[in-house]
Amino acid sequence: MKIYRLHKKQYLPISKKEAWDFLSNPKNLATITPDHMGFNILSGAEKKMYPGQIIQYIVKPFPFYSTKWVTEITHVREGEYFVDEQRFGPYDLWHHKHFIVEKGTGIEMEDIIDYKLPLGILGRTAHSLFVKRQLEQIFEYRERQLNKLFASNIAEDSHLTLKPV
Question: Which Gene3D superfamilies match (predicted)?
């Protein structure tokens, strides 16, 4: 069993409250997801984020293939972090931690995603051939979009790494 980790940090020159208000609102996920992913929220984003919240999406991870993705918000500490876990979707495991920490005149946003692909060796092969690259591109897009929305002075400490756990 191979579990992978994507670890992303990004500095934004905004207040912790502004970051939290944007990042903890599931409706904003479409703004920071590439259009080709066909991301569409079906249900569950009507209320402010809370533990136990179930959110259903449609995503299109590959051309001509879309799937339902169901996540549960399992932990929330207002203004500091939240965790979403896949309950149904394209991964065998998807555990995504979102942290917001004040840093200098802004915040550091940190995402830690532990994930596992289905299909054993086929899933591991798919990871090395295209899944890893696709996830990197999605989070690079997200970083660019957040910079456009919020950043005028981007710190040098933004980086992205993806490695097995």
Answer: 3.30.530.20
